[in-house]
Amino acid sequence: MSRDVAEVRLLDKPLVNKAFILFAALTWGISFTTMKGLVSEMPVFYLLAVRYAMATVVMALWVRERLLRERGRRTMLLGLALGATGFGAYATQTVGLSMTTPGKNAFLTACYCVMVPFLSWAFGQGRPGARHVLAAVVCVCGIGLVAADGGLPLNRGDVLSLSCGVFYASQFVILSKWGAGVDALVATTWQFAVMAACAATTSWLFEGTYVPPMPTVSDVATMLYLAIVCSCMCFGLLNHAMTRVDPAEGSILSALEAPFGVFNSVLVYHELVTPRLLAGFALIFCAVVMSEAGEELLNRLRQSRTQPVTH
């Protein structure tokens, strides 16, 4: 067996791909505190412009041959749509992060999983099932507990974090409706380019002329981590892995980004997690699992009950 064939077979193994999804979830969970530190040092949109400009260059070099081949209008339009919604998502998430804690930001952002079925319905892709409605109710209860922990109503950072979920949900709907048959990595390259352009324009219009100080080694390392690891690597691994694992298992592993974010926030940011806040996080996570994998889990439970017991 040749080395190339062995590598392809290894990359197709479910366990390897589950590890890819877990890596992406862990990396993005850790990045909440990383971004929290950066937004206290530089303007939000300047930060996003630099991050995604770097990600665009790295991604373009990674898929340069495919980028030259795949120049169809459909791929570019998909990249434009993903870039616009992606910019909206990261803008609201990052501005929201500057006004709330990393843990709250992580879990309120994760509500996008519950929003997807309803947004898909609005685009004519099928009516939400009973489990989706139940998941939405549970999610709203969880959000209520998170909000009540800091005093009602929700603060601006929490509202922006929730708004971010609408943009993320829009991305999933766009991909499911128009992403079939399109090279995902090429579309992602266009997405990063659009996000960088939108962030740079917004920074120029609203943040004025920002002259950054001489970057330290730590600053450069952090930006490289966000651009290469959190953006290019995680998106690439997730796009590859999600087509090779059970959707229910994949979605649950991906949703672990939120608890990873809280755990890291407690360790690094010293965020105080009260019992009420913890209960809210737990309800939101249950709602995500219920919405994404509820039917599959129920089917497996029914199958296990109907199988004969052997001795």
UniProtKB/TrEMBL annotation:
Identify the main location. membrane
Tell me which GO cellular component terms the UniProt record holds. Answer: plasma membrane
Membrane-spanning parts: 20-38, 44-63, 75-93, 105-123, 130-148, 160-178, 185-206, 218-238
The EamA domain covers which part of the protein? Answer: 20-146, 156-290
> Which keywords describe this protein according to UniProt?
Cell membrane, Membrane, Transmembrane, Transmembrane helix
Where is it localised?
Cell membrane
Please, which domain of life does this record's source organism belong to?
A: Bacteria
Q: How does it sit in the membrane?
A: Multi-pass membrane protein
The name of this protein is: DMT superfamily drug/metabolite transporter
Query: What is the native source organism of this protein?
Result: uncultured bacterium Contigcl_1738
